[in-house]
Amino acid sequence: MCVEGTPPPSSKLTRRGILAGAAALAGTLAAAGHATAAGDHRTDSGRHSPGTTPRAGHLVIEGGTLLDPATGGVTENAVVVIEDGTVGAAGRRGAVAVPQGVEVLDAHGRWILPGLVDAHIHLSTAAEARDAVRKGATSARSGSTSFYQDIAVRELARHSPALAPRLTAAGVFVTPDLGDTVLADPDLTPLARLKDGVRSPEALRRVVEVNLARGADVIKTRVNERAGLPEQDPLAQVYSRDQLAEIVAAARRRGKGVLCHSYSEQGCHDAVMAGIRSLEHGAFVGERTLHEMRRRGTYFTPTLTAIAGLAESSDPVLAERGRTYLPVLKRAVLAAHELGVPLAAGTDSSGGVVDPIGGEVELMHSAGLSPLDAIRTATTGAARLLGLTGTAGRLTRGHTGDALLLPGDPLADPAVLKRPVTVVRAGVVAA
Ligand SMILES: [Zn+2]
User: How far is residue 258's CA from residue 328's CA, in Å, rounded to a whole number?
Assistant: First the structure.
């Protein structure tokens, strides 16, 4: 059945007007929200000059050991000056001019890292968004949500950064069976008539186009069934290379990339050859596909956290699947890294439980990456995938003022990344 007989998305003009009003409202509320966030937080020893009011987004972090993931450089007794949410200067104390009257966060005895990037997370509620920040993910890429919640989370992050990670939104999943997601937008409802689901070129294009009209930054699709449902076979393929190429082409027409849920070697190969931007999960990705990924610069987001989580499942089918897949996936991660395939850390958190992105770094390390290379998968590497080079992943001048204070040396033990003592988001202490 053709779905092109129905009119194209029509409500954008109205929606744009509403969004403009919302932005104005956010502007009037932002100052109050930031002042609260800056005024009631707990810090090691936050202080500011008597008689002055801390200004939102202005913060000096001083005294800790600063790691630059890009260079591997370590600066002891460091100072990071954040102005209006952006790093103005960073370096050894004495070499950096420290402004007066600005709140100071004492980092003595701590390691200072840039906020981490979770390149695959499902943020469907305000509580999940806040939790992600508290657990160290100050930037993230959505792996889709059922009703466009991620588009709103992205806006929440823009006016209240302490409440949500800076988000690259994916909108709704491009998948054969949309289920209740046909109700996510009136322009998706015609797809409910399709007996075979979203499979024809017209239907695939429609889901992509509705996503883009709603403001999605990337498109999420799949080539295989799910690993997290015992009744599904994650090696069964749901879309062909041609169908994936249709999705990629529709996204590219608007300059957007595609992330693709994949498990089987053939599925991974078809997805990469169709031109996806990043391969998600990818447990059984083979050498020929990894070589192709290296050639094309396709990213690999293995979501080791999710597969390790399966192994802990109370369902015997899922537990067995997790125990079987995890070592296979770790070998694929190491092979990819040794070949020069870019890796991005992602937890695949969803359903109310947010896993710390630092745990994914720890798992990358356990797969054979050095601690620094593992940290890069959640900083400079993932930032590049999200188009955030120059914004996230480092704490040098011009980067966003997102930082973690850690209780120990992450180069000696990446597990400390799971337990940030303090999280700073755009110059505001968020946790
Ligand atoms: Zn996912």
Answer: 24
